[in-house]
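Predict the 3D structure for this chain.
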Amino acid sequence: MEAGYSRLNQLTVISASQGLSAYVEHNVPDAHERGVVVGHDHRHNSAVFAQLTVRAFLDRGFRVYFYPQMGLTPQVPFAVKRLKAACGVMITASHNPKDDNGYKVYWENGAQIKPPVDEGIAASITEHRKPLNWDIAGISGHERVVDVTADMMDAYFDAASRQLLQDRELNSSTQLRYVYTAMHGVGAPFAARMLRAFGLPPFIGVPEQLKPDPDFPTVPFPNPEEKGALDLAKDLADAQGISLVVANDPDADRFAAAEKQADGSWLMFTGDQLGAIFAACVLEMARSSGIPDAKLAMVNSTVSSRMLESMAQKEGFHYTDTLTGFKWMANELAQLQTRGYFVGLGYEEAIGYMIHDHVLDKDGVTALAVFVQLAARLHADGRRVGDYLESLYAKYGFYISANSYFICPDPAKMDRIFSRIRYGDSTDNSKRTEYSRLHKGEVLRYPRTIGGFPVSYIRDLTIGFEMNNVDQQTQSLSLGKNEYWPKFPVSPSSHMITFETRNGARLTMRTSGTEPKLKYYLEVCSREGDREAAARDLDVMAQAVAKELVRSAENHI
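Done. Predicted structure below.
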């Protein structure tokens, strides 16, 4: 939050809202009457930014459904869908550092905007950049502003408990105790109410992190995934003899959990492990509700675990993956709804989970209740959630991952690294493909092995290339114009390459859209459950990423 058109401030919020309101007016039927939903979190300036957003839409003639008090992100997409609004805006920076803020837009279907809508909105913002009205006085009393907090929150908790509550009597009688942290965010009152709606006992809160504080004084990064973020919660659990810790991020759209195991160590569940656990829960609940397996849909991002795909193959529910981000997953699930599918789960490895179809976005509060409900049931049987995860590995195969990144603040160097992966260079004597694309005047020279393991699959979403059974193709091929074109959208503005190898590994490398990072997502699967072999292969592959592909020492990153 700083001055300038490249930062979020009052000027850019007004410009964004003016451009968005104009675009919605021209592209959504009956937009003025259907209205817009606006909410905000507890960060510095969030309330003012939300009021300026309301003002811009009022000046354009819109009805505004407003959450005037700080709230959680899922409340906006829930209301957009429930009220059939024309769009929604949530002012939040989620789990970013304290100096950040953001402007999150939802389209009329309740999902985040994606191309080409985002491009149209951006063009409209450019056309309406000059600020017309800074006055936020009288917003709350305006005749076209409706405070929907009470009605929408009642409906939100009711919808979740009606669909996902399994056994109220068991929930109410459980002796399970657990620690909760809101990470200095807005989540605590919403988490408490959701747990009550499920009949679950209240949490024991981390007092230092329970109340909203935009300065996040106890954590450098208010992200439950960060190393050390849950230390206070685990310390409190240790002091009280509690074996379960649960957490939301500051705007309560993400969920994390850790559990003490029999040997006294803490198991911090990865985003993918939680994804598999939630998938199994959703499958069980869908079956108990009479939903046919073939009509149940689950989705995850392409950098998330393939364990969900393995579950779908064995159990028969519909599965697909999408590009990274909930704007892709939620819109895919929205489309599946129109085709008669029951939306069961959407998740990404970055601890984001959508567990019911009333919210087409991450919802950490609902995820929290479903997880604690499962933990309560397992506790009654003398089992841990870690035991439940082990049973899933035994059934669907063992999956182990290593996700990390390299810091590379030099864009030119980043381009050279990916260019070498894609096209090779004169210093490389390794085995590579020779795929000529005459219409582009280029030869694709991807590595044919990584860490000594044969490459079986390549997908490049920067230049547009996708091929299966690479190791079974001849080394040299001449490719036609639209041959081997990927199913996902291609974007030359960013780098993203995926490899699969014959040892059951999958590697995706991509540039970050917001940070100077080269990110990689590496997973190895052993269908036979050979954990030692999987861990050994994972280590070899991780070293190969650094030494063979990125050449981190040579590039000083």
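The mean pLDDT is 95.
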